[in-house]
Amino acid sequence: MTAAGAPQWRGIIEEYREWLPITADTPVVTLREGGTPLVRSETLSAETGCDVWLKYDGANPTGSFKDRGMTLAISKAIEEGAKAVVCASTGNTSASAAAYAAKAALTCAVLVPKGKIALGKMAQTLVHGARVLEVDGNFDAALELAKDLADRYPVTLVNSVNRFRLEGQKTAAFEICDALARAPDLHLVPVGNAGNISSHWLGYSDYLEAGVIHEPPRLFGFQAKGAAPIVLGEPVKDPQTIATAIRIGNPASWEKALSAAKESEGAILAVTDREILAAYRRVAREGLFAEPASAASVAGLLHLHAEGNLTADATVVCVLTGHGLKDPEWAIAGAAQPQTVRGDPAAVATELGL
Ligand code: F0G
Question: Is 124 in the pocket of ligand 1 (CB under 6 A)?
């Protein structure tokens, strides 16, 4: 217990208990996820003429939004007597599953596409003690394998096809509405396996139905151009993008994501890797380090703006889904390299032009 009255965010299950499918008997496995910053972007607001906010879900305990879903999925797995969990992943789900399984003392196995996982995510998954199995194939193949395994053996699947994942992830929408005291006009989010956009729509719909908000936002999801099956209307056999987190050719929540976009009068669109990297550098220069896939939401904002599809003064939220430290390669590749300097103040001052 923390001291009585000491303010500490309690994690999404305790903060939003009445909105979640749990009972008083559900054991709560939490790393105090959620409660992430909603940061106004002055420069993006000025450029687009909108009121632009960045929901920095990279500030979750394992550095991505997956923790919102994993606290619930692992808590329910424990409640149901599971001894082991499995997931397929492009890296963030595996990092999160490994951490929450460690907290709950569950065995965790992850299936990842060989050679396609950012280094930081692999480090997290290993350090939390998960068994990592590399699959010779992409994420879609790994997910089929994980599903098959869970069908046949006593192991619980914690990918977003596990409904508790989406229930937990919907809390991002609650936090945004609570912070703004209304829903935004537009809500922009990257799309990979298409669970997160579906979960956000679930959250806004819950708040709408309960009368907490009166208008839902329009939801816009952004896939990477080389991995944009929903935009193309057919699976992509060999998806390609530098944003490895969303390198997915046959999303599990395809239909749910399409419904979210349709019902909210939004859309699922594609942005190029070039647009993603430009947006990635841009938010970093505002102090928020997000991984490339996360920047697809901001790339999407600039894309909508360039096409004249934004209404002036609209309140817009872009979700930054994962932390930049997970995939530092792109940060270093695009930056000026450090210089060596002599160890005296005059030399440093000269170097800095002071
Ligand atoms: N952003 C990041 C940083 C992600 O890791 C993912 C998905 C997404 C966006 C897309 O979310 O799949 O719900 O549409 N990562 C999964 C993983 C696939 O295995 O970590 P989605």
Answer: no
Judge whether 84 and 107 are in contact, CB under 8 Å: yes
Amino acid identity of residue 122, one-letter, is M
51-56 and 38-40 strand pairing: antiparallel
Per-residue pLDDT 10s for the chain (354 aa) are: 567 778 899 999 999 999 999 999 999 999 999 999 999 999 999 999 999 999 999 999 999 999 999 999 999 999 999 999 999 999 999 999 999 999 999 999 999 999 999 999 999 999 999 999 999 999 999 999 999 999 999 999 999 999 999 999 999 999 999 999 999 999 999 999 999 999 999 999 999 999 999 999 999 999 999 999 999 999 999 999 999 999 999 999 999 999 999 999 999 999 999 999 999 999 999 999 999 999 999 999 999 999 999 999 999 999 999 999 999 999 998 788 899 999 999 999 999 999
Q: Answer yes or no: is the C-beta of 93 below 6 A from any ligand 1 atom.
A: yes
Global confidence as pTM? 0.97
Q: What are phi and psi of 133, to 5 degrees?
A: -115, 125
CA of 65 to the centre of ligand 1 (A): 8
Residue 245 Cβ contacting ligand 1 at under 6 Å: yes
Interatomic CA distance for residues 226 and 205, integer angstroms: 31
CA of 245 to the centre of ligand 1 (A): 5
Cα–Cα dist 91/88, whole Å: 9
User: Which residues partner with 110 through β-bridges?
Assistant: 87, 132
DSSP character for 290?
A: B
How far is the centre of ligand 1, averaged over its atoms, from the C-alpha of 199 (Å)? 12
